[in-house]
Each structure stands twice: as structure tokens, then as C-alpha cells.
Specification:
By secondary structure, the protein is mainly α. It is built from 11 helices and 2 strands; from the N terminus they run H-H-H-E-E-H-H-H-H-H-H-H-H. It is elongated. Mean pLDDT is 88; it is low at 247-254.
């Protein structure tokens, strides 16, 4: 197991991406080679599997690797095809922050929200539902407005600014953009029932329920991101199926 040298301002996925970039540039992994499996990289460098996924997405954006679902990650170039790509905040890290911050925003909003503001959230929810049907990420644009409007219901400008900043990062970070594109390609859209649960908790003026509803909603967003960036699920299923076939062949010979 190796440790990744990091500065205080360096994220783990960035350190891993830099390590893999050096190994690719040195010829340790050549074009056409398959990188070690996600679980192996996680064990080798003592990081989480989401950290490995963030690093792979960074290399993918820079044109160094190609992700082949059900097969693995393959080197396609030893030099980046896109220079100067900023390895910014990743989608997993961002969503973890949103769970904490927007959960508290919902709790604070429950104590301050007005009937007119609840009506506006209902209107936005109806717009989100209609936008989901049109595709092309239209529902996500309304989702942004929903969450930012809710943050304004806190009557706390610092909280509102924090939520708006998180959404700005989400929509500008190359890492986040690529990860959410993967999620969108899997058919994931803002879930109407989850947003409705948030509104109902706000309508009850229940801070605990509002915090819980928001955290559960964003926790599921994190689950969708994990599912949409899964590289090895099909590969592992094939390996298990092959093992089952071999076992049955042995049984037939007995």
C-alpha cells in the first residue's frame, strides 16, 4: 500500500490523478494497457473508491484514458489532449457538502418560510416535472432555481450565498460537469417526490423533518452519481457467472 503525498490544498483525487499521470507518461502504463481495477487502486493508495472514480474522470477529461463500462479503464494517450484542464472540486465532494449545508438551510427555512414562498416552491416543482419530460437536462436547470430559492427562504444571506456558490461550482467545474453528464446519460433526473417531501416538511414548519428530507434527497443524488460512474459492475457480474459455469462443469464431471 502506498501513501499519496498531498499538500493541505490538494485533494486526494488530484494526488491520485497526478500519480497515475506520471505512471502513464513514464510508460508504466502504455496506450492500450488496462489500469488496475478500481478496488485494486483503492487498496494500493489507501483511498476510497469514489476517490479513484474522481481521479479516473480527471484523466478521462484530459484525454489520457477511456472508460469502457464492464471492461475497465484503458490508457489511450501518454500526453494530455487537453492542456490546462483544472482539476477542480469533484461531484462526490460537492454533493457531500450540499448534504450538510442544504440540510441546515432547509431546517432554517422551515422556521421562516411564508405561504407565498411555499406557493412559489410548488410552482417550481410543477415546472420541474414538466421540464423532466423535455430531456436535455431541463429539469436540472429548474432544480437549481428550486434549491437557490429555498436557500433565500432562510432569511440568512450567508447561507443563501453558500448554496449559490455550491451550484456555481457544480455548473462550472469540469469534474462535476463530466460526472453529472454520466448520471444524466443513465436517465437520472430530479426526483419530484423527493422535492415534494421537502416542501411538505417546510409547510409543516418542521425543521427536523425539513433537514431530514433534504439530506435524504441529496443522499440519493450521491447514490445516483456512484451508480452512474460504476466501471466494474458488469465485469464483476461476468466473472461471477463464469465461476458459476465452471462450477457446474465440474459437477457434471463428477
Amino acid at each position: 500500500m502506498q501513501s499519496l503525498p498531498t499538500k493541505q490544498t490538494t485533494r486526494l483525487y488530484q494526488a491520485l490523478a497526478e500519480k497515475l499521470t506520471r505512471l502513464i507518461a513514464s510508460g508504466e502504463y502504455k496506450p492500450g494497457d488496462r489500469l488496475p481495477a478500481e478496488r485494486e487502486l483503492a487498496a494500493m493508495y489507501n483511498v476510497s473508491r469514489p476517490t479513484v472514480r474522481e481521479a479516473v474522470i480527471a484523466l478521462e477529461i484530459e484525454g489520457l484514458v477511456e472508460v469502457r463500462i464492464g471492461s475497465g479503464v484503458y490508457v489511450i494517450s501518454q500526453t494530455p489532449s487537453r492542456e490546462g484542464v483544472e482539476r477542480d472540486i469533484g461531484a462526490f465532494e460537492l454533493t457531500e457538502a450540499r448534504i450538510l449545508i442544504e440540510g441546515e438551510a432547509a431546517a432554517l427555512a422551515a422556521a421562516n418560510i411564508t405561504d407565498d414562498e411555499l406557493a412559489e416552491l410548488e410552482r417550481l416543482l410543477a415546472e420541474m416535472e414538466a421540464a423532466n419530460q423535455s430531456g436535455a437536462g431541463a429539469g436540472e436547470m429548474v432544480d437549481k432555481r428550486f434549491h437557490e430559492f429555498l436557500a433565500g427562504c432562510t432569511r440568512n444571506s450567508a447561507m443563501q450565498s453558500a448554496v449559490e456558490h455550491l451550484w456555481m461550482v457544480r455548473n462550472r467545474s469540469p469534474q462535476c460537469i463530466r460526472t453529472f453528464e454520466k448520471s444524466r446519460s443513465k436517465g437520472h433526473k430530479p426526483v419530484i417526490d423527493e422535492h415534494r417531501a421537502i416542501i411538505e416538511a417546510l409547510r409543516a414548519r418542521d425543521p427536523v423533518a425539513a433537514r431530514t428530507a433534504m439530506r435524504e434527497h441529496l443522499g440519493r443524488v450521491l447514490e445516483y452519481l456512484l451508480a452512474s460512474t460504476e466501471i466494474e459492475a458488469i465485469e464483476e457480474a461476468r466473472a461471477k457467472a463464469a465461476a458459476q459455469r465452471d462450477r457446474y462443469k465440474v459437477s457434471e464431471r463428477l
